[in-house]
Specification:
CATH superfamily: RRM (RNA recognition motif) domain
Largest sheet: 4 strands, antiparallel
Oligomer: single chain
Order of helices and strands: EHEHEEEE
Structural class: alpha+beta
Strand content: 35-45%
CATH class: Alpha Beta
CATH architecture: 2-Layer Sandwich
Distance between the termini: 33 Å
Radius of gyration: 15 Å
Number of domains: 1
Number of helices: 2
Strand order of the largest sheet: 1-2-6-3
Number of strands: 6
């Protein structure tokens, strides 16, 4: 499974209004696999794709004070053709 889930944060929803959609993807996937998966799953045309990798890091827990390892993850920011959208990112006011 290449696309893990959509990233629904305040910033990503703001970018969705501009036509940029953000997803959490598998860290081992490449841009061609991500593009094919998005086009197949949502039936849209991807014009550009940017990926961002985050490394494994240690985070101190506020509750217990112990160190926890935060997993590595990869985000994909996707731009679609004009007037195409993905329904997961629609926000009704």
């Amino acid at each position: 499974m290449i696309i893990t889930k959509p990233l629904l944060t305040e910033k990503s929803l703001h970018n969705a209004a501009k036509g940029l959609f953000t997803f959490i993807v598998s860290p081992k996937s490449n841009k061609h696999q991500i593009k094919e998966a998005v086009e197949a799953q949502f039936e849209v045309n991807v014009t550009s794709l940017h990926t961002i990798k985050s490394k494994v890091r240690r985070v101190r827990s506020r509750k217990t004070g112990r160190y926890i390892t935060a997993k590595a993850r990869k985000k994909a920011i996707i731009r679609l053709k004009d007037k195409q959208t993905i329904d997961l990112f629609d926000v009704k006011k």
